[in-house]
Each structure stands twice: as C-alpha cells, then as structure tokens.
Design brief:
Length: 217
C-alpha cells in the first residue's frame, strides 16, 4: 500500500514520544472541557443566585467574541504555531475564570461582560488549534480514529464535569465554587499542554483570509 506522502506518520507505528504527546493533548482537552463546560452549563444558576444578573447577554457576548476572533486567531496561528497560540488561549480562559471568582452582585455588569468576552476569545483559540494537533499525530489512514479520540476525551469530560461540579455544589450548598473549580481545571490543562512536544507543525500562511476558518488542516 502506498504511503500517504502528505503525512510523515503514515504507515508507521506511533513512536513512544508522540504517543505521550497524544495522551497529553487528550488530557488537556479533557481538563479544559471540565472547566469550560462547568461554566457554560451552570452560569445561568450562578448569575441568578450569586450575581442577581441577567445571564443571557453575558453568554451571547462570549459567543460573539469567539466568532469575531476566529479569523485573527487563524492569522496568529500561522505566524506563531499551534502550541504557543493555544497556550495563550488557555491563559486567557484561566484569567477570565480567575477574576470572575471575585465578581459579586454589586459589581457593574460590564466587568463580567469583559471577562466573558475574554473567555470566548480564549476558548476560540483553544478550539481552533487543539483538534489539528491531534490530527497532526495521526497516520494518513487513521484520521477518523484520532478524531474519535478527541471527541471521546471532550464528551467524557463534559459528562464527568456535570456530575463532579454538581456534587461539589451540593456539598457546599451554593454555586460559589463554580469559577474556582473552572480555574483549577483550566490551569491543569495548561500544565499538561506545556509538556506536549509534537503535533505543532507550524501551519503555512493562508493564501486567502477565509482559509483562517479551516481548523481541520
């Protein structure tokens, strides 16, 4: 069978060092989903019970910031590579969640809007770069299997975090631990991603600005 000339790993068994990188990436995926999904699924109750604020606009701002940032993120990634850009996104997400810990009902609404906009940009940066790093480690014929690894890690984390965070809220008796919980998991994802050594092939500059939307190369 002809080796896939577009992928240097085609036809080869994944070496130990690349396997470690794959496991670290998947671990990072699980960890940041643990933090991010806890916020997106619980923030409506947190905003109502802790902040006495409208939660719909805050989440819309986060989504809007993410959408607007996709093209700039693609351009930045083409210049600095996936890992550095992704780590910057993790830092943004962690900072947004960390500062949100201290927001209370008497704070102006715009502060939380700013933090969620930062979180949206951070999450967009992570999502644009994490999946291609997993695919980069796959063989030419194994992209589907590695895609499965990625989504297994992300979906399992979303299920687990709903149970774990819910248990914590029940024990404490309120939703105050939400952003502490989210910050811890996002920081842990930075640590695991920091030690990734493979999957960071620097993307070629985009010939057209619309190609920055393509996250599957």
């Amino acid at each position: 069978q002809k080796q896939d000339e577009t992928n240097p790993n085609a036809g080869q068994k994944l070496p130990k060092d690349k396997l470690i990188s794959l496991l670290l990436i998947l671990g990072s995926v699980a960890l940041w989903y643990m933090g991010y999904n806890a916020v997106t699924t619980t923030y409506s109750r947190y905003a109502t019970e802790v902040l006495n604020k409208d939660f719909n606009l805050t989440l819309i701002i986060a989504q809007g910031a993410a959408i607007i940032s996709y093209i700039p993120i693609g351009i930045i990634t083409s210049k600095f590579g996936r890992k550095k850009t992704l780590l910057a996104g993790v830092v943004m997400l962690a900072l947004a969640f960390f500062f949100a810990i201290f927001i209370r009902a008497n704070f102006p609404d715009f502060i939380m809007y700013i933090l969620f906009a930062l979180a949206g940009i951070g999450w967009a940066t992570i999502s644009v770069n994490s999946f291609p790093m997993v695919v980069e480690l796959s063989k030419g014929s194994n992209i589907g299997k590695y895609t499965g690894y990625y989504y297994t890690a992300s979906m399992a984390a979303q299920i687990l975090t709903s149970m774990l965070s819910g248990l914590i809220f029940d024990i404490v008796g309120n939703y105050l631990p939400l952003f502490i919980y989210a910050t811890i998991f996002v920081v842990l994802s930075f640590i695991t991603m920091f030690f990734v050594k493979h999957g960071d092939s620097k993307p070629q500059p985009k010939k057209h600005i619309l190609e920055s939307f393509d996250i599957d190369d």
